[in-house]
Amino acid sequence: MKKECIAMLLAGGQGSRLHALTDKSAKPIMPFGGKYRIIDFPLSNCANSGIDVVGVLTQYQPLQLNSYISAGQPWDLDLQRGGVYILPPYQSSGAKGEWFSGTANAIYQNIDFIDMWEPEYVLILSGDHIYKMDYSDMLQQHKDKGADCTIAVIRVPIAEASRFGIMDTDENGYICHFSEKPKEPQSDLASMGIYIFTWETLRKYLIADENDPASEKDFGKNIIPSMLAGGERLWPYRFSGYWRDVGTIDSLWDANMDMLSPTLINLYDKSWPIKSRSPIKPPHYIGENAQIRHSIITEGCDVRGCVQSSVLSNSVTVAEGASVSHSVLMPGCVIEMGAVVEYAIIGENARICSGAVVGSAPNGKEGWGIATCGPKVCVGAGQTVEAGAMLYSEKEGK
Amino acid sequence: MIDLHGIVYAYHSYPTLNDLVLKRTSASLPFCSRYRLIDFALSAMTNAGVRDVGVVMQTNYQSLLDHLEGGKDWDLSRGSGGLSLLPPYGLYNSQYGDYKGCMDALAAIMPYLKRVKQNNIVLMRSDLAVNLDLESAFDAHIDSGAEITAICCKKAYDSSRDCIGFLPDDDGFSSHLQFGSKDPAVLQSIEAYIIRKPLLLELVSYCRENGLFHFHRDALAHYLQNGGRIKLFQHSGYCAHICSISDYYGASMDMLTSSLRSELFPEDRPVYTKGRSSVSTYYSENSSVKNSLVADGCYIEGEIENCVIFRGVRVKKDAKLKDCVILQDSVIGENACLSCVISDKNTSFSAGTTLCGSRVLPITVPKGKSI
Questions:
Q1: Size of interface A-B (CB pairs under 8 A)
Q2: Quick one: CATH architecture of B5-264?
Q3: Out of A35, A291, A313, whose CB is closest to B279?
Q4: How far apart are the first and last CA of chain A?
């Protein structure tokens, strides 16, 4: 079946900088902003942009991700002619089974999947960014410019530029230079990790890259530089809206706090809905003595205590006399009576027992940071978890 | 697979629900922040493993169709079977407009009933707020060898009508149907029946041939008169029959009590409803919320106390809501002050409006009204 453009969503990375939070599940499935999982953003963007074939490449801890995406119903991607496809690494005849060894290798191993749709263009996405973007507009620009590759770019503060893939453009507007995480960035034009390639060209470069033993099989480090060297036309697509990488504890916390200010990213906009798979839960209940200030609360919650400047995912319990401020509470976690949670991220189904104290307000001291409790962690009654601490859930099974 | 087929009656609305059923049937009446009443019947069936369900509808069913779509949200969208919507066929003698009674409605869907693959059929109303353990009821039905099992509850769940009940015998069966009985030994029927298919077909034919319409007065009475006995299954949790504004308001306020809420929403029998993509609810710095149920997608800047708030409601700065039920997408303007108000979908109250009902006589604001 022929499609003009299909999307490939890279969702297999570990997200190791999120430590305990991604110990047992992939980063794209991370709860975010109360109602969402990170992957809801690229999936909804695809659906809203009219891209109705999405291959999701999974590798690291994929079980929760697979069941969350399932047939793609929440995003209207459960289709007869297209839809969302989970693409794990697989065995092929003759060769041994092989893990995806890099972002480019993951796409390389799925060349046959892409060829099934005979696309002219392929959109490459990653599952760790929070943003709303109309990919069809980017595709239109790609066609208008006759580009071989279009890279979505955003201006970043020059001080932070060394965290990104940074590029320069020549006098005609083409990208003339690209360096992945440069030590001394020459420009503030950062790659958002969103690419549209003309499939015929990308296919050629993927095969060449696979045969290069020195390559790390990475888009930013290998494919883009060799396309530049090969004289292909690379064009930037300038994006100026809200876009956050949520790859670290601090950036995950920051982006969650952004959700408290609807002026940063408008999620009420009915013309561009971000959709999610909802748990089957009754509405949230706010108790007689509860105090809620500047917070977002999701269905299934039961709040009897005090909640300030915080983001509560579904089914969170905050008992009477408990106090939560400047924190992110993920689905199903329980804050018992008298517990205090400040500047913290509490993972799914974690329990903070009565009288425990987790995290503290910024005090200017060295080592201060967001306190993090991994999924299912239990902080015992009366215990204290210092600011900046990272608690892992107990290992069970593998 | 459970040998049980579901039939949900969604053709009737009580006129005592006034404005709330002006543009919908009782079945699609919004309830408890995010549900429609029919969700409870459909979820009971889905949770019991029933995979084929027919919904009998007759008039005013546009809103019900919008809600049910293909039945996906109740896992009833199937390649074969699943959810069947049964609007009037116009074949049988329903020339009187409304179905005159349940047997009239069943007669109208006779071709459908004949094709039912399962040997047992559960008949259920769509205007109950109840979380039935239909699986246990079905097991009791099969184990007892009964032809009909009536699901009952102990307390009078229905204040506004003469209740239908059964006087139990010692063996868990009954041969005595009672109307409006005040006898404490009588178990109230919640009008959910599990009935063997051949018997149901026989009763429908009997009523049709004799020009009879009513399930209890005609069909069940006939069955009992001929020596039939009815197995009783007792439902112990919450049950409210919503047939008037005051029932609706009372049941809505009941949901603010944790124990009643957990009877209606037990962890192991979730209540499914149509999904709606929306954000979480935001509470501003100056909001104040007490003892309230709030759905997703709301934006709360004012004060709410003892309220049930549906999806997408906006409560602006310094607005005060007390003892209110605010249906989806309504907007309460700045400084507005509402108490004991039921406002239907998409209503809006401009800044400074004051509207006070009483708990006994709440004010209903119809769908789409601006005040």
A1: 98
A2: Alpha-Beta Complex (3.90)
A3: A35
A4: 41
pLDDT at A355 over 90: yes
The pTM of the full predicted model, rounded to 2 decimals, is: 0.89
In chain B, which residues have pLDDT < 50?
96
Whole-complex ipTM: 0.88
**Cβ within 8 Å, pair B290-A286:** yes
Suggest the residue from A259, A285, A313, A330 to mutate for an interface test with chain B (most B CBs closer than 10 A): A285
Residue B71 tokens, joined: 């039945």
CA torsion sign for A8, A11, A16, A17 is: positive
Give the minimum alpha-carbon distance from A232 to chain B in angstroms, rounded to a whole number: 41
pLDDT at site B78? 85
Nearest to B32 by CA among A151, A285, A244, A181: A285
Topology of the domain covering B282-365: UDP N-Acetylglucosamine Acyltransferase; domain 1 (2.160.10)
Whether the per-residue pLDDT at A370 is higher than 50: the answer is: yes
Q: Which of B256, B282, B328 to mutate to test the interface with A (most CBs of A within 10 A)?
A: B282
Q: Give the model's pLDDT for residue A228.
A: 92
Domain spans, chain B: 5-264, 282-365
CB-based contact B275 A311, cutoff 8 Å: no
Residue-wise pLDDT tens digits, A232-288: 999 999 999 999 988 889 999 999 999 998 788 888 888 999 999 988 899 999 999
For B293, the closest chain A residue by CA position comes to: A285
- CB-based contact A14:A63 (threshold 8 Å): no
| Contact in structure between B133 and B269 (CB atoms under 8 Å) | yes
B5-264 and B282-365 share one fold: no
Residues of B in contact with A296 (CB under 8 A): 279-283
For B81-171, where are the alpha helices, taking DSSP H only?
102-108, 110-115, 134-144
A58-92 pLDDT, tens digit per residue, is 888 888 898 999 888 899 998 888 999 999 888 77
Per the DSSP assignment, residues forming a β-bridge with A109 are: none
Residue A106's nearest CA partner among A82, A130, A122, A83 is A122
**pLDDT greater than 50 at residue A397:** no
A179-189: burial string, b at 16+ Cβ within 10 Å, e else:
bbebeebebbb
B271 contacts chain A (CB < 8 A):
yes
Is B272 in the A-facing interface, judged by CB distances under 8 Å? Answer: yes
pLDDT band at A398 (very low <50, low <70, confident <90, very high): very low
